[in-house]
Design goal:
single chain; alpha+beta; Aminopeptidase; nine-stranded mixed β-sheet; 4 helices
Amino acid sequence: MERTVILLEAGSASLKTYLPSCQEVRRIVFVQGQGVSESIDFDGKDETCDHLLLLIDREPVGTLRIRKTEEGTKLERIAILPSFRKQGLGELMVRCALSMVSGPLYIHAQVRSMGFYERLGFIVQDPSVFFEADIPHKTMIWPHGQGEQPCNIIRPS
C-alpha cells in the first residue's frame, strides 16, 4: 500500500489539477456522509487555501484544507474516506499539516471527533458548543509550536 501526501499550494497549477479530487473526498465524507449542504462545504475559499491530498496506491482517500484567518491558521475540511478510517491516516494528515505551519493554529472540531484531536495534543480553547452545518463543534487550539514532518510531502510545481 503506497501512501503519498501532496501539498497543493493556493493558486498553483497543481491545486487546479488536484482540487477536484479533494472536493470529491469531501463530497463523500461531508455531503453524502454527514448531510452537509454543498453550499456550506464548497464555500468558494478553496482556491485561496493550501490543501493536503492523501493518495493510497494513487487513489485519493483523504484531504485537509489549511486556511489563514485573522485568528491564525485554521485546519479544516479534514476528511478520510470511510473505508480507509482506523488506519492512522487522519493522524498522518493532521501531523503533516502541523509540520508546515507556525504561529497560532486552531480547528473547529466536531464534538464527536474531539477525542481524536485531544490525543494528537489539541486542547479546547472555549468549552462553548457552537453549530456549523447543524453539527456541534468546539474550538480547539494547538499549543505546541510547529510539529515534525511525519513523512515526505510532495510539492508539485
